[in-house]
Structure formats: C-alpha cells, structure tokens
Amino acid sequence: MTQNFVGDGQLYSNMDTGLDQSVTQLGEYWCQHTFGEGISVKLGRQDANQNFGFADLGGDFINSSFITLANIPLPTWPYQTLGVSTLYQPNKKLRLGGGVYDHGRDYGQWWATTDSRGVFFIGQADYQPCAECEDAPLTLLRIGGWYTNSDTLAVDGGGVFEGNYGFYATMDRMLLTECEAPEQGPGAFFQFSWAPEDRNQVGLNYGAGLVYRGLLPCRNEDTAGAGFSVIEFSPALGNPTGQTHENAIEVFYKARVKDGLNIQPDLQYIARPSGIQRDALVVGIRFESNF
Fold first, then answer.
1. pTM, two decimal places
2. pLDDT band for position 200 (50/70/90)?
3. Does 105 map to a domain?
C-alpha cells in the first residue's frame, strides 16, 4: 500500500514491508536464559524492536513510526536477523540492555544504503524514577545509541562511509490513573531519534502522542489514541528532489470485542509523503486476533 498508493516514508502501517512483495518466513527462533537475579541473555534470530527503540504508550498505534523509530536500522519485522542480546536490571529503577546483530546489504531500510555486510550494535538504558513507589503513575525514560560497521553510501552519492550511527530517546508518562486500575487513564509519550544527514536520508525523527485506556464507561479494555510523527530529510536531498519533511497524524480507537479479539478503526493524515508527494488521507480498520 505504501509503495503503490500513499508513498510515505514512515510506512503508514507497521504491517507493511515497504516493498512490493509477499513475506512468508519463520520470523524468530531463539533461546533465552536467565542468570541469577536480573540478567537474561537471548541468542538466535530475533526482533530487536521487542527490547529497543520504542515508547511503551505508542504500541497501539498503526503507523510504523510509533512502533519503531523511523531512522534506526533495527533488525525488526520483516528483517529479523541472528544476534545476541542481554538485559540487566540491577534495581527497580534501572534496566540496562544491549545487543549485537547481523546487518548488511540485504537489510530492507530505504533511508540508508549499505554495500557491505557488517554488525549492528545497540545499547539502551531504561529509567523509572518512581518505580519504588507503588502508587506513583508510570514514568519511564529510555536513552539509547546504535552503530553499524556496514559500509554506508553517502546521501549525495559522493563516497562511502565506514559505518553509521545514531542515538534516540523516549519518554512515557501516565498523567492520571484510576485507584483500582493503575494501567487505566490518560498517558502521554514523546520520542526523538537522530542520525547523521550525510549518510542517512532521514536525519531527524520526532513525535508525541496521547492515549487513554478506559475512556468510555464500562469499556475498561479499550484504548483511544492520537499522535503525530515527523521525519526531516537530509539537506543533501533538497536540491535534486526538493524533499524537506513528512508529517503524519494518527487517531484511533481500539475496541476489545472479547478476550483475544480487537477491532481498531484508524484515521491518518500524511502531509507531504516522502517530502514531495501530495497529501494523503488514509482510513482503515484493523482486526486483531490472539490465540
């Protein structure tokens, strides 16, 4: 849909591969082991986005940028790779994580082009300042950085860089909670990601959103949300293509029909898809079934 109709760079659906192709795969196979208290290691083909590069409260949005920050070349669906990752939680407030993954020229992200096969490294710190207070609303800060030694082509075509890198930050905050159900109520999130513009077509990605779980009476499992995400293109693209930025706005309501079955009407307005296309209005509905 993105390639044939919308033309957006952020991918309006997190189920879209971004390529005109069908995907049939054994997505993940891994083994995870816990050592002592607070240390776990996972080895195998895995989706790095399960642990890195996201805001918790953005998880129910459909636009890809609310699930995976738009200019981090994470090994995520449908391009999971072999790797090893570890998480260490020394106390309730702090969790440290890192991963090393296979990475290279067959990786399907469009904003950075590699011509060698290398290794992708990522590190992240999660901090919950109020974790020891049982009645305190959720406040979660994430800061991370990544690096790959895959040779990366310059955006202007003028050379090859020996690697690529970037950093990111997200914040989740519950604004109000119900006494008997701390997961219900309004919450907000913010996300930011940076990568060098000389080797990445997207230099900046930032966004924010509001979600409310249990907005309607007697609908405690439903979630409503509204958010925006922006990508800013490298100045090196300005002269040849005129690309500047792309803005995406999304509003949704996710209704729990019964256990394991959700229906989610969704509305998105995408201004300047890929920085140069006509504005697009995307209306859809998603059915989600968990067995």
1. 0.92
2. very high
3. yes
